[in-house]
Specification:
The complex is a heterodimer of chains A (274) and B (295).
Chain A lengths: L5 H28 L3 E3 L2 E3 L5 H9 L2 H33 L3 H16 L2 H15 L5 H24 L4 H9 L4 H29 L3 H6 L7 H11 L5 H21 L1 H5 L11
Antiparallel strand pairs in A: 1-2
Helix pairs in contact in A: 1-11, 2-11, 3-6, 3-8, 3-10, 4-6, 6-8, 7-8, 10-11
Chain B lengths: L19 H21 L17 H8 L1 H31 L7 H7 L2 H4 L2 H11 L6 H7 L16 H26 L3 H9 L4 H12 L1 H16 L3 H6 L11 H11 L3 H30 L1
Classes of the chains: A mainly alpha (274), B mainly alpha (295).
């Protein structure tokens, strides 16, 4: 018989407790969305899917906001990745102290600086250039906002690829772009997917930037959620819970799809062994 | 071997185009707006106003006369002090629990992202109802111990800010654990085996072997968290709107209220730039620390 020490058991119990506490608010929300509201006396209500339908009737802007958000977020994430990848590769190749010591930390600072500091002037600029309240303006602003972080993370992955690999491909006559596309990208594909998922989630949840760049419609989903909550006094908890779950769904599905890449994700990735 | 990456290399010059799209996009949508914002704090520029002139430090003088500025920055710093150490400590605990492999670990790791997937806006709506006296989770938990009505702590002047911090910890601590875990796992097993062999305690193992090796990663994550909590906006807006009074107003919310709601553009941007200044100082700290790491 295999003897299990008390330490692993204690560890699993603690871990289970932490995970349950962490998920409890969402479980409560899940129950409410399906019409079950526990109170001091027991489980009240009956299981139903009606509340998901009520979200649409309660606020017709919800589904429009959902679809608009999906387009903005997907396109912006794609633009961020397509701009970040070659630039991050170039930065990874410049094996100089000023890249690691100045450019990369500066990019991280750019990724962290509060949106309000450039969002207000950007709002003014986009009014003057006709990009205000405009799909293109919003997508480009989202794309630019996430670029420093994407660049920083991807440079981390790309700088761990041994230069000998690229040298070999260059000697075979491959151009710089071909090396990136055919040799380097397959090696860091997991990192790119994980970065894409994280950038998607960040974009999907943005509120301050879109509310500085658009007025009424079309609105992105977090803005709809805000109005939904602030102006509809009649809002009931099950409807709100259903709306929350619906707004969570795309990010959740994407995380499940990218699970393998996310499991290996690291801000400071290990060396690639060839 | 290195030669090919040096400045003399013939293909160094050929691929500079690669950084252009990123520079253009960041330039037009990040750096130029930020720069213009900073410059405008020294002028009396205002939207819809035809001409403007340089006024020196007048805007700064004006915003410093207002007492709300003090509350906003105190709250921002308080939120950071209340959340970041707790997030890091909890994340380290979870990472320690996940260090040993077991079936389903990768699933648990990805599950840690779940609270963070909820947008601050949606999380705000959720917590509003969770703290509700009738349908809320707090009321249900409270009913197990007492029959008293449990009012939302968000409406309580003393409890509003700590409660706000709690909701932030819920959203961000699991993400922090997700980001910290690779650092814990990267520590070579033979070093830990050796520690076990010479009979080191868990405490020594963590303080002497594991934590020193993940210093760079931890510093980076702390900087990300500090920046995030200093610029707190969405969840405050929806949960308390800065109230009761100015008990939970944050610098970003104050700036937004002035610039957008009260149409006092120059004061709003000036406060936004005071906030940027605080974050930039944190950034300089981070760069100094991370550079000393490399040597």
């Amino acid at each position: 018989m295999r003897v299990i020490g008390w330490k692993p058991v204690a560890r699993m119990v603690t871990l289970g407790f932490v995970v349950v506490v962490c998920l409890l608010p969402l479980l409560w929300t899940l129950l409410a969305a399906f019409g079950i509201e526990p109170d001091g006396k027991g489980w009240q209500g009956e299981f139903s899917l009606d509340h998901f339908g009520q979200v649409g009737t309660f606020d017709p802007a919800f589904s429009a906001g959902f679809i608009y958000s999906l387009f903005v977020t997907l396109l912006a994430t794609f633009i961020t990745l397509i701009c970040a990848l070659p630039a991050a590769y170039k930065l990874a190749q410049i094996n100089r102290k000023w890249v690691a010591g100045i450019v990369m930390p500066f990019l991280l600072v750019l990724a962290v600086i509060p949106v309000i500091g450039y969002g207000l002037p950007l709002s003014e600029l986009s009014r003057r250039t006709g990009l205000y309240g405009n799909f293109v303006g919003l997508v480009l602003a989202y794309g630019g906002l996430q670029l420093p972080l994407a660049l920083w993370v991807l440079q981390g992955y790309l700088s761990k690829i041994p230069p000998t690999l690229e040298e070999a491909a260059r000697l075979e006559g491959a151009t710089w772009a071909m090396v990136l596309w055919r040799v380097v990208l397959p090696i860091v594909a997991g990192g790119v997917v994980a970065t894409g998922v994280l950038v998607f989630v960040l974009n999907w949840n943005l509120f301050l930037l879109p509310s500085l760049l658009t007025e009424h419609s079309p609105q992105v989903l977090p803005m709809v959620m805000r109005d939904f909550f602030a102006f509809e006094r009649e809002l009931e908890w099950p409807t709100a819970a259903a709306a929350l779950l619906a707004s969570l769904a795309p990010a959740f599905i994407l995380v499940l799809v990218g699970q393998n890449s996310l499991d290996k994700f690291s801000l400071i990735p290990p060396e690639v062994l060839v | 071997m290195r030669k090919i990456f040096s400045l003399q290399s013939p293909w160094f010059g050929s691929s500079w185009w690669a950084v252009l799209p990123a520079i253009i996009l960041m330039g037009f949508f990040l750096i130029i707006p930020a720069g213009l914002g900073l410059l405008s704090t020294f002028t009396n520029y205002s939207p819809g106003q035809a001409d403007w002139k340089i006024v020196g430090l007048l805007n700064y003088q004006k915003v410093f006369e207002n007492r709300t500025l003090n509350s906003a920055f105190t709250n921002g710093v308080l939120l950071t002090v209340l959340t970041v150490p707790v997030e890091i400590a909890l994340a380290l605990l979870v990472a320690a629990l996940l260090r040993q492999p077991f079936r389903g670990r990768s699933f648990v790791r990805v599950l840690l992202l779940l609270p963070w997937l909820v947008s601050p806006m949606a999380a705000g709506v959720m917590w509003h109802f969770l703290f509700n006296g009738q349908v809320g989770l707090s009321a249900w938990l409270g009913s197990l111990f007492t029959s008293d009505y449990i009012a939302s702590p968000l409406a309580n002047p003393g409890w509003a800010l700590p409660t706000l911090a709690l909701t932030e910890v819920w959203r961000v601590a699991p993400l922090t654990a997700f980001l910290l875990l690779p650092g814990v796992l990267a520590v070579p097993q033979d070093q830990l085996d050796y520690a076990l062999l010479i009979g080191s305690s868990s405490w020594t193992k963590w303080s002497r072997i594991i934590l020193p090796q993940m210093r760079g990663l931890t510093l980076t994550i702390i900087f990300l968290l500090v920046g995030e909590s200093l610029s707190e906006f969405d969840s405050v807006l929806i949960l308390t709107g800065g109230g009761p009074g100015t008990r939970t107003i944050t610098p970003a919310l104050y700036s937004y209220n002035l610039a957008v709601t009260s149409h006092n553009w120059s004061s709003g941007v000036t406060i936004a730039w005071l906030l940027e200044g605080v974050v930039l100082i944190a950034g300089i700290f981070y760069i100094t620390l991370i550079r000393s790491e490399g040597r």
